[in-house]
Amino acid sequence: MDSSLPRFFRAGSTLFGLSLVLLLSFASSSALAQTGNIALASLGCTCTHSGGGTGYPGYGPENYNDGITTTTWGWTSTAANPDPNSWIQFDWGAVAKSIGEVKFFNVDLSTRYMSSGRIQYWNGTSWINHYDFPAASILTRTITFSPVTTTKLRVTNMTITGSQTSNPNFYEIEIRSTVLGMNNAGISAMPSPLNFCTGTYPVIVTLVNSGGNRITSATINWTLNSVAQTPVTWTGLLDTLNATTRQTDVTLTTMNFPAGTPQNFQGVVIPAERRPRYGESQ
Questions:
Q1: What is the pLDDT of residues 223-270, one digit of tens each?
Q2: Cα 82 from Cα 159, distance rounded (Å)
């Protein structure tokens, strides 16, 4: 696992002749820590797959996030080995999660066992390859990787080993959020500009709290095409990791975007103040 800082969220697109390249970075205040399983259906996460077992209690993807790690299991179909078109997906809706760990509860090492695979995340417009984990034979296997902030995560390109080399099965798949320090705010997305023609548009970023403290103010230092821009100070309330109010959109400026000109954005967030966590005295 690479836990070096700062960490990065990358996205890129070409829209009506404008090539927009984003490089968003933010720093952390202390070592990495993992939270409890955030993939549970009871916590609002939806698990689907590209095809295979169906129904619950049956063999459908609902078995992957029901919290039962030793009995009921599901399976996902594969047409090749590995199969880049076969996938298992976890979706948190509109709430972005900072993720750095996936734990697989495999059914049997002798058959239909996923020995290696790929982690992908959704950047708002497309799936991005994030981490290819190597082959290993471990019945309950934990995969760790550089944290990524996203609303959807996929496991794909699975290599299957054993007497049957297709259709892997799992009792459960757990996912854990990564907390980067107690006071840690960062940029997870750029909602604007998105789909547009040449013209003047606001530059809006999504500020997210990935730490353990509630944050009441932060400074966003940012550059455009390597030129330092006026820092933006945000005040308000960003709740802790599992709260729905832990992210907000912040307008940095309004600017004119000419046609056919790549724009490189980089932002660093410095949390300035915090409030105690729930249950903590002032």
A1: 887 788 888 989 988 876 544 677 889 999 998 888 777 777 776 666
A2: 4
Quick one: how far is CA 86 from the chain centroid? 19
Q: Rounded distance, CA 115 to CA 133, Å?
A: 9
Chain mean position to CA 158: 19
CA dist 84 → 52, 77, 118, 163, 174 (Å): 15, 12, 9, 21, 21
Amino acid at 100: G
- What are the sequence ranges of the domains in the chain? 7-30+182-275, 33-180
Q: What DSSP letter does each residue of 186-217 carry, written as one string?
A: EEEEEEES-S--SEEEEEEEEEEE-SSSEEEE
C-alpha span between 193 and 146 (Å, rounded):
27
Distance CA 129, CA 82 (A): 15
Q: Which residues pair with 207 in a beta bridge?
A: 187, 248
CA-wise closest residue to 10 among 187, 155, 156: 187
Architecture of the domain whose range is 7-30+182-275: Sandwich (2.60)
* Count of other CB atoms within 10 angstroms of residue 181: 19
| CATH, range 33-180 | 2.60.120.260
Taking only the tens place, the pLDDT of each residue in 170-221 is 999 999 987 656 677 777 777 888 766 788 889 888 888 877 678 888 888 8
Q: 247-257 and 199-209 as β-strands: parallel, antiparallel, unpaired?
A: antiparallel
d(CA 96, CA 210): 10
